[in-house]
Structure formats: structure tokens, C-alpha cells
Design a protein that fits this description.
The chain has 192 residues and is of the alpha/beta class. Helix content is 34%, strand content 29%.
Amino acid sequence: DPNNLVPLTYSVTATFKQDFDRTLENALTLEINLQDFAGEFFNKFSTLVQTNRNIVDSYIAEYISKDGLMFVVDGTAKYRDKEYRTSFDQFMNQWFIATPNPCRMAIVVGKAEDADLWTGRYNPQMIIEQRFPQLTQAIAAWRTQGNKLQVSYVACSAFGTLGHTERRQPNSKRVKQDQDGILRSEEHTSEL
């Protein structure tokens, strides 16, 4: 529901045994807790800053309490560059109004299974720089302000790919593409 701005909470526990990685002396358990704030929140961010300061302050306080944040970008939506930059700038402004603490953030390129993105999956920063120049400028500007923004880049895929060679195929097919992005459907069972 685009009007529901209440974040969803997820918890995942993953245990890696020595069979998974021979360098492990013992099994490694990771507990990941996260909150998923709707992208619609950022679409409405500038309006909310002026009309509903309480919800903005509540969200920012919640973000500040986390170890790190993910800013997920639809890698296929180059036309949203200005929107992403505006949302990013507004969020960072509110962050530093609320706290002097540095912000640790992963900039995540979504839909990396797309053929246009697949070849750059090992260099997601390059994908952001080439496809989203305005967002790239905003990130650079914030990073130069006293090392307050620490950024890592990650590529991710919801569907994965099929095959075992460099010519892997996306494990999805495009159903439609419009101003809201690309709708995909699962095509095969992924070979991971």
C-alpha cells in the first residue's frame, strides 16, 4: 500500500558451516535485523518535511539508531536520477540536522540480473556513476563534508540468473516497462 508509511521489520539468521568456507574455524552465525521503509516515504519526503514534521523526525530517529542504511536504486530506471538525487539530498539534510554522527550507507543497485546491468555487477559504483550522474554528484558532495558519509556500493538481484558461464541469462522476463519501472515475472528456477 503506497499510503502506508509504517516500516516492515524483518529478521534473518544465517549459519555458515565449515563445509561452506574452509577458512572458518567454527560455524559462523549472522543475525540480520532490518526495517524496510517504503520508497513512497522518500517520494513524499519534501512534503512531509513541511506538513508532518513528527513523522519525519520519527523516521530520522529510527534511522540514526541503526548500524547502517541501504539506499536501493532501481538500476533500470535511469529516468529517476533527479528523483533519487532529490530524495538523497533531502534525507541527508534531515540526518545532519538531527545528529552530527556519520552516516554509513550502502548504495544498492537493484535488478542487477538485467542484461544492461549484468556486465557491471562487480563494479556497482560504476553503474551508479554512469546511469545516475545527479545522484553521483550528490553522494560526492556529501562525502566531502568532513567524512560524514561513508558509502559502499552493492549490486543485487531478486531473481538471479541461469547458467554457469559469463553468458548467463536473467531468471526473469520483462512483462512491461513504464514510468513506474519494470515488472518482471519469474521464468525459471534459479541455479545458484
